[in-house]
Amino acid sequence: MSYRLKEAVFKVRCREPGCPFFPEIVVKENIMGATEADIDSEAVKIARNMAYIKHDALYGRTHALASPEATKVTGSYVQLGTGPAAPVVAAAPVSTAPTRTYKPGEAIIRKGESAVTVCEVVRGSAHNEKIPEMAYKTGSTFGAAAIFRHKNRLADIVAGPEGATIAFYNLRDLSRTNPAKARELYDEAMEDIFHVVEHLEDYSETLERQVKKLQAAQAVRKPTPKPAPKAKARAKPKKPAAKKKPVAKKKIAVKKKTKKR
């Protein structure tokens, strides 16, 4: 048994202090689901997106739609395979994922934080603070560490240049209330993991090429060692000259003259 949306009315409020924005948003898209809750979870996204457009047209020059709070007013559904639609009225707020709006460059998640929720970009964009080319546009998912138990965030993710509105989903809770949405987020989170792995592989290859270039450059610059000078043969020590023996002086006999008397 499944259902199709006929019409749903939501009231979306801007949480910016002093902002009077609180219109009724009518959703009439052809949404089908196994339960009415499945339809509501998709319809409220459309209502939020319509509210962003309407808010920007009225107050876009002063501030962005901050953390919109969507409340379901009425809803009617068609039970497929049965008679005419039975209107359903609900005054209680729709159970939706909490959202938050971030200013450009503001941190959304930080490395080392406990990973409890998977993050979906509802509006704007986000990117890895240290690797800006790893960006997430509207509809993308990040924070894949939350699909594992007792894990911490692995990177710093910040809002893009136009800011970002992020929805935070606890996959374990969502799998009980909206299994289809939980599976969608799980698949997107796994794709994000593969993208990160591919980026690391490319980065590793780039580093290897740079190391080889440096090694080649060093080999070219390295001077050729000069041959060591030949050692001079040691001169034989001269023998000290033999001392000449002193020549003995000859005694000359002198004859004494005798005087004649």
Q: In the CATH hierarchy, what is the superfamily of the largest domain?
A: Jelly Rolls
Strand segment tally? 11
Radius of gyration: 46 Å
Summed over residues and divided by their number, the pLDDT gives a mean of 79
Q: What count of helical segments does DSSP give?
A: 3
Q: State which percent range the strand residues make up.
A: 25-35%
- State the CATH class of the largest domain: Mainly Beta
**Helix and strand composition category:** alpha+beta
Helix-strand pattern, N to C? EEEHEEEEEEEEHH
The total domain count is 2
- Uncertain runs are 85-95
According to CATH, the fold-level topology of the largest domain is Jelly Rolls
Taking the alpha carbons of the first and last residues, their distance comes to 186 Å
Keywords for this structure?
alpha+beta, 3 helices, 261 residues, Jelly Rolls, elongated, 11 strands
Record the SSE blueprint:
Elements: E1 3-13, E2 24-27, E3 32-33, H1 36-59, E4 69-79, E5 86-89, E6 99-102, E7 107-109, E8 118-128, E9 135-136, E10 141-142, E11 157-169, H2 171-177, H3 179-221
Antiparallel strand pairs: 1-2, 1-3, 1-4, 4-5, 6-11, 7-11, 8-9, 8-10, 8-11
Detailed description of the structure:
The chain has 261 residues and is α+β, with helices and mostly antiparallel strands. The chain folds into two domains: 1-95, no CATH class; 97-219, Jelly Rolls, CATH 2.60.120.10. It has three helices and eleven strands, in the order βββαββββββββαα. The strands form two sheets. Strands 6, 7, 8, 9, 10 and 11 form a six-stranded antiparallel beta sheet that branches. Strands 1, 2, 3, 4 and 5 form a five-stranded antiparallel beta sheet that branches. A hairpin with a 6-residue loop joins strand 8 and strand 9 (135-136). It is elongated. The relative contact order is 0.11. Residues 85-95 have low confidence and may be disordered.
